[in-house]
Amino acid sequence: MNDDAQKLARTARQLLDTDAALGGSYLPAERNPLPSPAPATPEKAGPAPPATSPRSPDAEEKAAALDRIYTQEARDCEKCGLSRGRNKVVFGEGNSDADLVFVGEGPGQEEDRTGHPFVGRAGDLLTKMIGAMGLRREDVYICNVVKCRPPGNRAPTPDEAAACWSYLVRQLEIIRPRVIVTLGNPATRALLNTREGITRLRGRWQQLGMIGEGLAGTAVMPTFHPAFLLRQYTQDNRGKVWSDLQQVMAELGLATPKRGEG
User: Could you give the percent of the chain with pLDDT greater than 70?
Assistant: First the structure.
């Protein structure tokens, strides 16, 4: 077998391994003429450290700061009507010093019951997506725009999102991720302050505006919400999501997991 054939065989094996990790038939990422990610800001110039490695010595301080917001404010929050129907506030969880943050729209039934984000069927799929990137849930941070479950799992209203906005901004200010993946329309529109839909924005690098200290210019990759992917589990949609995640992996310097990894 010549060198070209060996390279093709290795690539095919990697795609099959990723397909198995995600639980479906994902398409290879197409050559996509999208804008290149924004150049690194001066303080983050130079070779990027692995996403799973601590980026600063104050990770414990960040975790403590997040916990203070939860215990002193969010846990007993009554800023909007969602508080009246909740069982538990779903604040967020994961690595307080993560390079990568996933932001969804709001908790569902299982999240409301347990207090943990993305633990239902959509959460299972998100966990597979994270694993296919060569990461674990513990390596990233996961949260939502609103911290209480909207009735019937509907999208949060603008007023509800506004009531929780300071919590989300402060979470991001503390973590200072290199990349944010927004999952679905509500999260994408809230963080990017846009009316554009996810179908037009997904797969295209965006940047945060001046929403909080140190956050302007943070790279944002919008993609479909796992719940939508479960409803529309087509080869085309799965391929689009995997293409989006591959762009995030490239930005973070992550390699496609080899056989037996992830």
Answer: 76
What CATH number is given to the structural domain containing 192?
3.40.470.10
Summarize pLDDT for 31-49 with one digit per residue, the tens: 333 333 343 333 333 333 3
In 93-173, where do the E strands start and end?
A: 93-94, 100-104, 141-144
Tell me how far CA of residue 170 lies from CA of 58, 117, 141, 253, in angstroms. Answer: 16, 17, 13, 26
pLDDT at 34: 34
Instruction: Tally helices (H) and strands (E) across the chain.
Output: 9, 6
CB 51, CB 252: distance < 8 Å: yes
On whether residue 20 sits in a domain, the answer given is no
Residue 142: closest CA among 178, 181, 174, 110: 181
Cα three-residue angle 248-253-257, rounded to 5 degrees: 85
